[in-house]
């Protein structure tokens, strides 16, 4: 038989090169280099299979067994594994039919089915306004002015670098896989547009000083709303401002303004501290003066009421006995007038009626009290 020829005849099918079924064909026409006959090749292949197959023949059951084995092997290719940080997306005839969780899963094998895997626990960082080879760290960064320079609400320019941390929403992984073609570029474009909108609603003083936290929160919320509108399947975790400065060309002038504002604030604080100390003291002093005035008023009113009451009492007595009352009032008045003065009393009863005028040294008497007062 031709396949049992071990003579080593020439030609490409000699013993120097054997095919998968043993010795290669010898070639029709006595090895003159002509192409082999296909029918001869098929016949030899069938004969070889008869030797390999049990029973020496290949009937219908053998063909069915081979076909069944091939089908089983094909179906076995549908098993796949999803890692812990991933989620699987099953497609059948190109249509999304469901998601699978980490572990061993099954889908129709190719070309009927296909599986897309996406990392849902990985946190991605998108840098806007700068580029850094070490991710979010600020060492060795390169500023990108076309992204970082923004117009404020009071028509000033501010230089803002910020980072956005985002990841795939596990519940919307299909949207992420099939609705957007360039997730990184989409997130970056939405981040830049959102930041410009939020910055455009504030003046530069608020942006540089007090509103950094509010800006981060508003930008994150606005980004999430826009990405949800696009059905992107992206969840924004954090917006973090890295640098908020005036443009480099005017930063020195802005720092001078900031220093002047700080001096102003310090002076205002000192004035408020002084006022908080002096005002209570002044209010206390005013309250004391008011109390003294009220006490004086009450005393004067009480004295006036007492005098009026005494006058009324005197008047009532005067009405009852005018002469006696007049005499008493005269004596009391004389008592008040002469009570604190020097007095010289002359007793005419002892003059014996001789008409002698007594000599009184009035000048000496008046001078003595004056000298006593000077001493």
Automatic annotation (TrEMBL):
Keywords: Hydrolase, Membrane, Protease, Transmembrane, Transmembrane helix. Residues 1-39 are annotated as: Disordered. GO terms for biological process: proteolysis. It is a single-pass membrane protein. Pfam families: Band_7 (PF01145), HflK_N (PF12221). InterPro entries: Band7/mec-2_domain, Band_7, Band_7/SPFH_dom_sf, HflK, Membrane_HflK_N. GO terms for cellular component: membrane. SMART domains: PHB. The chain crosses the membrane at residues 62-82. It is found in: Membrane. Residues 77-258 form the Band domain. Residues 21-33 have a biased composition (Gly residues). GO terms for molecular function: peptidase activity. The keyword DNA repair does not apply. HflC and HflK may interact to form a multimeric complex. Belongs to the band 7/mec-2 family. HflK subfamily. HflC and HflK could encode or regulate a protease. PANTHER family: MODULATOR OF FTSH PROTEASE HFLK (PTHR43327:SF2), STOMATIN-LIKE PROTEIN 2, MITOCHONDRIAL (PTHR43327). This is Protein HflK. It comes from Alsobacter sp. KACC 23698. The gene is hflK.
């Amino acid at each position: 038989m031709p396949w049992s020829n071990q003579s080593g005849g020439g030609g490409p099918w000699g013993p120097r090169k054997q095919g998968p079924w043993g010795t290669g064909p010898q070639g029709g026409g006595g090895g003159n280099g002509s192409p082999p006959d296909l029918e001869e090749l098929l016949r030899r292949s069938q004969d070889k299979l008869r030797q390999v197959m049990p029973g020496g023949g290949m009937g219908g059951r053998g063909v069915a067994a081979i076909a069944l084995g091939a089908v089983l092997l094909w179906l076995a290719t549908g098993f796949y594994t999803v890692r812990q940080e991933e989620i699987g997306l099953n497609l059948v005839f190109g249509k999304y039919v469901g998601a699978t969780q980490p572990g061993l899963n099954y889908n129709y094998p190719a070309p009927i089915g296909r599986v897309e895997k996406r990392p849902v626990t990985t946190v991605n960082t998108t840098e806007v306004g700068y580029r850094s080879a070490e991710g979010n760290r600020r060492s060795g960064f390169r500023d990108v002015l076309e992204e970082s320079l923004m117009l404020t609400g009071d028509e000033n320019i501010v230089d803002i670098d910020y980072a956005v941390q985002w990841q795939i929403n596990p519940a919307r992984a299909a949207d992420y896989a099939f609705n957007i073609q360039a997730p990184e570029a989409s997130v970056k474009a939405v981040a830049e547009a959102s930041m410009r909108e939020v910055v455009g609603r504030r003046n530069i003083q608020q942006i540089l000083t007090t509103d950094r936290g509010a800006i981060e929160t508003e930008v994150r919320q606005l980004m999430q709303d826009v990405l949800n509108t696009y059905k992107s399947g992206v969840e924004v975790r954090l917006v973090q401002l890295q640098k908020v400065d005036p443009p480099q060309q005017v930063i020195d002038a802005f720092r001078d303004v900031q220093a002047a504002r700080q001096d102003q604030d310090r002076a205002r604080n000192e004035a408020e501290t002084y006022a908080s100390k002096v005002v209570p003291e002044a209010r206390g002093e005013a309250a004391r003066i008011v109390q003294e005035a009220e006490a004086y008023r009450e005393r004067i009113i009480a004295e006036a009421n007492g005098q009026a009451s005494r006058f009324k009492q005197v008047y009532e007595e005067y009405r009852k006995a005018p002469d006696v009352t007049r005499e008493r009032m005269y004596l009391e008045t004389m008592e008040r007038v002469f009570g604190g003065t020097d007095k010289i009393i002359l007793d005419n009863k002892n003059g014996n009626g001789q008409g002698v005028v007594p000599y009184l040294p009035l000048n000496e008497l008046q001078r003595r009290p004056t000298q006593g007062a000077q001493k």
